[in-house]
Each structure stands twice: as structure tokens, then as C-alpha cells.
């Protein structure tokens, strides 16, 4: 990567259009449709996606995740991390340019800015001129709309944690709980400051990914590049130029004007480049106008650009050791998570031994240990389970409840005792299991290990 281009204090990105811009607009629309729409979907008479922190459970459509399912959250985080590594190795900062929330929200804030303050030229002219009532009024309106949008994002994000319909009922009177009120305001301020005010500065100065993504690049990574062999020597075309006197770059500067981070891609790859391809769209339009082939700025690899292989080879070069390792890790995590989820049971149980005494003798002369069982039905269907024990000859489980009825996603705490004959239990501590069977099933659905103390 080359040294950074000096970045102007305030950037006024010029509006661009083209195929990559269309993809970006569609992605903004899709991600926002999902983000704003998901909390309103219902499933089984409750919010389809509800991260119910208060009761330690996450609902995602038909699946319910409990603290014991933390492994799936870890798997999800690993998939995100390795997915990003894989994506970056293959296609550079495509994530930053198209799907990162900072890019998406900055794009939305820029649309609001253009709507209220006009295009790039009008904004630059107004900002350079004297402070007028019109300028103040437009700025006030712009920030009012940005803050309103930010509040809506804060409200929606909080709606993933507190049912959004409850929040909506509280909205007219602002009768939110203290945490709900805090998070709505906090996330709104976060969105407004980062996307509305700081914008590209977050990508260039605050985002750690911009700093370490370079180590994931190699010469076969797809990056936005300027073809200097074709473009140089640059300069405006004149009628008296010879056919080969100049390269295809007419030095119009439009690729710099459309860049959201204000850099000049013709100076080589820079860490400020978020790979948004706005400069590709802009330059392609310039090439169309001067009847030159498109692609003076394009997605390509360092090796192809240096002529080590033709551009048609790029796809074939994608399969390289690093890509295969990341893909293998991702496939393993996927397969493990799916297999684990397919085998998981709808009942969870914690067995806690009563530590106030080790063992006691019943009136019948049996050795007895006491336990507290916490049973959770993780499904949304009522279920009935029977309890028993094994691990020592003649071991039996007794208590007021050896058959438990559990409502949907209900948790029940019950006291049970394990009893065994002193003739069958040697002194000391022994491993035993508490078994849970679904009504009518012979095989247990769950076996939890605990200790039984002999005399
Ligand atoms: S848009 Fe294309 S032609 Fe214009 S300055 Fe940039 S690279 Fe050169
Ligand atoms: S140089 Fe091109 S791809 Fe990189 S951030 Fe600027 S406009 Fe986007």
C-alpha cells in the first residue's frame, strides 16, 4: 500500500451511478429491510426474533437458545470472523464498501444531506459562502432528519431486546423503562455521531479492520485498482495529440470527487480505500464519453495488473492454500453446529447436590443423598418427563415429583432424593446419573452426572 493521499478536512462526495452503485443501493435497502422489519415479525404469538436478556433466552423464529447453548453463539462469532478473513483474502474490503453498517448508515445520511442541501457543488458553494439564514435553516433541517432517523434505528435495535410492540405502546408517552430509554438514546446518538458527523473518519482513523486487513491481502486478492500502464501519461486530450501520445486517463478528477474517503486511487492502493467501487462507476462513464474501453479503474489483482497472468486467470487463482484453510474451518464449524443442533434435546437439567450434609440413613435403613434439580423445557410445546437414577445397584430416585410437567419454555426447580442400600454402596463418593425420559419412551433423553456419598 502506498502512503496516504492528504485527505481534505470535509469531503463532499459527488453522486455517482452505475452497476456497482446499484448493487450498493440494493444492499442498503436489503439490510435495512431486514433490520427494521425483523422485530415486527411474529412467531407462535411472540416476537419472532427476541433477545430476551431478562430471562436468559434468545428466540429466533422456531429455535430457542439458552445460556447452555452459548456454544452456538461462539460458533456464530467464529463463522463471522473466519467468513470475514475468507472474504477479505478473496475480495479485499468488499464488506466495508457494501455491507458494513458504518458504510450503510453513512450512505443513508448522505442521501438525507443531498435531499436537504443539494448536490456537491451547491453544498461546497454554500459552505464556502457567508453564514446565511438559508444555510442555517438547511443545516438544522438536515440534522433534525438525521436525528429522527437515528432515533428510529435506536428504537428498532432496542426492539430486539424488549418486544417492539410494547415499546410502540410506550412511545406516545415516552413511558419506557430506564434501560430501554437509555439504549434508544445511546444507539441514536451513536448512529448520528458516527454516520452523520464523523462518516469516513471512522473508517480511516477508528476502524481496526482497516489497519489489519493488509495482512490478509496477497497478490491474488481482488482490489480496486487503477491501470497506470493504460492510463498514463494522463492529461486532457487535445485534437493535435498523436494517437498514442496520452494514456486513457484524461485527468478529469471525477474518480476523486466521488470517493467517500476523498482519496485518489491513481496513487495506488491506500488503507483509506473501502473498496466501494464508486470510482469504477465514475471512470467507466468517463471512458464511455471518450469512447475508450471501460475498466481503467477496475476490480483486479496485483499480479494481473503487473502482467504476471491474464485477467481471465483471476477466477482460477482464487483457490489458493489460505482460501482453502479458511473454507475448511468454516465448513467444520458449520457442520459441527448443524450436527450439534440436530442432536440437541428439548430438556435441560442442572443437578445440584445438597451440600449441607453428605449422607443420612432413612427409617428403612437406606442411605440417602438430597439434590435440587432445575429442569427447563427449551421448546415451545408443553412436555412431560419422568425422572429416575442409575449408577449403583438398587439406586432409586424418590421425591414428591418424579414426573414433571413443563409448560412451553418453562423452568421448574424440584427437590429429589437418591436412595440405595448400604450393603450395595461401598464407602466414599460414587458417580451416579439422574435420567430424564420423555413420557412413554424407554431410552432417556438426558443423563446428568452427579455424586452419591456412601456412609
Ligand atoms: S475518472 Fe478516470 S479518467 Fe478521470 S481522472 Fe479518474 S482515472 Fe482518470
Ligand atoms: S478509491 Fe474508489 S473504491 Fe476506494 S474508497 Fe475511493 S471510491 Fe471507493
From TrEMBL:
Sorted alphabetically, which Pfam families does this protein's record hold? Fer4_18, Fer4_5, FixG_C
> Where is the chain membrane-spanning?
21-43, 70-87, 144-161, 181-198, 323-343
Q: Name one GO molecular function term.
A: 4 iron, 4 sulfur cluster binding
InterPro entries for this protein:
4Fe4S_Fe-S-bd (IPR017896), 4Fe4S_Fe_S_CS (IPR017900), Cyt_c_oxidase_cbb3_FixG (IPR014116), Electron_Trans/Redox (IPR051684), FixG_C (IPR032879), Ig-like_fold (IPR013783)
Return the SUPFAM superfamilies for the record: 4Fe-4S ferredoxins
Ranges for domain 4Fe-4S ferredoxin-type? 240-268
GO CC, sorted alphabetically, is: plasma membrane
- Which top-level group of life is the source organism from? Bacteria
Its recorded name reads: Ferredoxin
Amino acid at each position: 500500500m502506498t502512503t496516504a493521499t492528504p485527505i481534505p478536512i470535509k469531503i463532499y462526495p459527488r453522486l455517482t451511478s452505475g452497476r456497482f452503485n446499484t448493487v450498493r443501493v440494493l444492499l442498503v435497502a436489503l439490510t435495512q429491510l431486514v433490520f427494521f422489519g425483523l422485530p415486527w415479525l411474529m412467531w407462535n404469538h411472540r416476537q419472532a426474533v427476541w433477545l430476551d436478556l431478562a430471562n436468559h433466552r434468545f428466540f429466533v423464529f422456531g429455535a430457542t437458545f439458552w445460556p447452555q447453548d452459548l456454544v452456538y453463539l461462539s460458533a456464530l462469532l467464529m463463522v463471522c470472523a473466519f467468513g470475514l478473513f475468507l472474504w477479505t483474502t478473496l475480495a479485499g474490503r468488499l464488506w466495508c464498501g457494501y455491507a458494513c453498517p458504518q458504510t450503510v448508515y453513512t450512505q443513508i445520511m448522505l442521501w438525507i444531506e443531498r435531499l436537504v442541501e443539494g448536490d456537491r457543488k451547491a453544498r461546497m458553494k454554500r459552505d464556502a459562502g457567508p453564514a446565511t439564514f438559508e444555510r442555517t435553516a438547511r443545516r438544522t433541517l438536515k440534522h433534525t432528519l438525521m436525528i429522527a432517523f437515528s432515533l428510529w434505528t435506536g428504537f428498532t435495535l432496542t426492539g430486539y431486546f424488549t418486544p417492539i410492540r410494547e415499546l410502540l405502546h410506550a412511545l406516545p408517552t415516552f413511558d419506557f423503562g430506564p434501560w430501554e430509554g437509555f439504549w434508544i438514546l445511546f444507539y441514536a446518538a451513536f448512529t448520528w455521531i458516527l454516520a452523520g458527523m464523523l462518516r469516513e473518519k471512522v473508517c480511516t482513523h477508528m476502524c481496526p479492520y482497516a489497519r489489519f486487513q493488509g495482512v490478509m491481502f496477497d497478490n491474488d486478492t481482488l482490489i480496486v485498482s487503477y491501470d497506470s500502464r493504460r492510463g498514463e501519461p494522463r492529461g486532457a486530450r487535445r485534437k493535435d495529440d498523436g494517437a498514442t501520445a496520452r494514456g486513457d486517463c484524461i485527468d478529469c478528477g471525477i474518480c476523486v470527487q466521488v470517493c467517500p474517503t476523498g482519496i485518489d486511487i491513481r496513487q495506488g492502493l491506500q488503507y483509506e480505500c473501502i473498496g466501494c467501487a464508486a470510482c469504477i462507476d465514475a471512470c467507466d462513464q468517463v471512458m464511455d464519453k471518450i469512447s475508450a474501453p471501460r475498466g481503467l479503474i477496475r476490480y483486479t489483482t496485483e499480479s494481473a495488473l503487473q502482467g504476471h497472468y491474464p485477467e481471465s486467470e483471476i477466477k482460477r487463482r482464487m483457490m489458493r492454500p489460505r482460501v482453502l484453510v479458511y473454507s475448511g474451518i468454516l465448513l467444520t464449524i458449520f457442520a459441527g453446529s448443524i450436527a450439534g443442533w440436530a442432536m440437541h434435546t428439548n430438556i435441560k437439567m442442572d443437578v445440584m447436590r445438597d451440600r449441607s450434609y453428605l449422607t443420612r440413613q432413612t427409617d428403612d435403613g437406606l442411605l440417602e443423598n438430597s439434590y435440587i434439580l432445575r429442569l427447563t423445557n427449551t421448546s415451545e410445546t408443553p412436555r412431560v418427563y419422568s425422572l429416575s437414577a442409575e449408577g449403583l445397584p438398587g439406586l432409586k430416585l424418590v421425591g414428591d415429583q418424579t414426573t414433571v410437567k413443563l409448560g412451553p419454555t418453562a423452568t421448574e426447580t424440584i427437590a429429589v432424593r437418591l436412595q440405595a442400600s448400604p450393603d450395595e454402596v461401598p464407602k466414599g463418593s460414587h458417580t451416579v446419573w439422574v435420567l430424564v425420559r420423555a413420557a412413554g419412551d424407554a431410552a432417556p433423553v438426558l443423563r446428568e452426572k452427579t455424586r452419591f456419598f456412601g456412609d
